[in-house]
């Protein structure tokens, strides 16, 4: 594989429920299988030298799902670390989380905070889970924080620029200095952004796979990297 490795790769892990339903399994089986794909892709991305891998685990819109499914999904971060923590440590992977923490149930939040703490000294890839994340909500939140600074006299309106905004995005606390997404991957055939990392995706390359997320593996990830390497990015210039 020749060419630049994207520093920040983001993934919309779509198609878990549909994968299960096609096999006459409950949707929850698809979510379980999806966790195995998370492990495969995280290990491959770290082997390839990706700096940050951000995975869309749960959106601010996912609260509209049936309560049983929400309960199941909120246990997955706990299961994930129970099973995969040794492998994360072995691979020198640091865990971070991007999202609104308030609505996350206590036991889930605790398990996540513990994993963040356990891996904080790892200086390999950052595995960043977007949990209760929404792109518009993130921008509104940043705007409110900036407005407060102005109101309290700590910031002049004329000093607000893109860097000010970036300081107040949810990704600022988890993945600085790699907030900008280089490669955005979505599984399962849909070709849309679904409110994921709106600001951070301004100049990203997109890669779509028709495979459902439980079918995703390291080799498909490598295909996405090769595709990225064949493109020329101009960031608006020539
Ligand atoms: C979830 C499995 C992967 C496919 C997508 C839907 C279901 C890993 C996590 C996770 C989240 C935070 C964290 C550690 C692990 C997760 C949810 C769903 C809600 F700190 N997979 N996974 N969280 N799925």
What keyword list fits this structure?
238 residues, alpha/beta, Undecaprenyl pyrophosphate synthetase, six-stranded parallel sheet, 14% strand, globular, binds ligand V07
What would you note in describing this structure?
This protein has 238 residues and is of the alpha/beta class. It has a single domain, classed as Undecaprenyl pyrophosphate synthetase (3-Layer(aba) Sandwich). The chain has a 6-stranded parallel beta sheet with strand order 3-4-2-1-5-6, sandwiched between helices. Helix 4 links the parallel strand 3 and strand 4. The site of ligand V07 has 19 residues, from helix 2, strand 2, helix 3, strand 3 and helix 4.
Would you kindly provide a brief summary of this structure?
This protein is an alpha/beta fold.
Number of strands: 6
Assembly status:
single chain
Order of helices and strands: EHHEHEHEHHHEEH
Provide the structure class: alpha/beta
What would the principal axes of the Cα set say about the shape? globular
The tally of domains stands at 1
The CATH class name reads Alpha Beta
Which percent range fits the helix content?
40-55%
Strand order of the largest sheet: 3-4-2-1-5-6
Named at the architecture level, the CATH assignment is 3-Layer(aba) Sandwich
Please, what is the average pLDDT? 97
What distance separates the N and C termini? 26 Å
The radius of gyration is 18 Å
Described by strand count, sense and barrel closure, the largest sheet is: 6 strands, parallel
């Amino acid at each position: 594989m020749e060419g630049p490795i994207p520093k920040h790769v983001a993934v919309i892990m779509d198609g878990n429920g549909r994968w299960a339903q096609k096999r006459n399994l409950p949707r929850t089986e698809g979510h379980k299988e999806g966790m195995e794909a998370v492990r495969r892709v995280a290990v491959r991305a770290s082997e390839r030298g990706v700096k940050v891998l951000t995975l869309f685990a749960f959106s601010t819109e996912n609260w509209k799902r049936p309560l049983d499914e929400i309960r199941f999904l909120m246990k997955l971060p706990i299961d994930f670390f129970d099973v995969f923590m040794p492998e994360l440590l072995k691979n020198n992977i640091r865990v971070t989380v991007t999202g609104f923490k308030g609505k996350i149930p206590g036991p889930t939040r605790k398990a996540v905070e513990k994993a963040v703490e356990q891996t904080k000294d790892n200086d390999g890839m950052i595995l960043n889970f977007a949990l209760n994340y929404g792109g518009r909500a993130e921008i509104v939140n940043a705007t409110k924080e900036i407005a407060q600074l102005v109101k309290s006299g700590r910031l002049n309106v004329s000093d607000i620029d893109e860097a000010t905004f970036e300081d107040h995005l949810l990704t600022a606390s988890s993945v600085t200095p790699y907030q900008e997404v280089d490669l955005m991957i979505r599984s399962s055939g849909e070709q849309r952004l679904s409110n994921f990392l709106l600001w951070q995706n301004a100049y990203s390359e997109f890669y779509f796979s028709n495979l459902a997320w439980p079918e995703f593996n390291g080799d498909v990830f490598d295909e996405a990297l090769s595709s990225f390497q064949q493109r020329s990015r101009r960031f608006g210039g020539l």
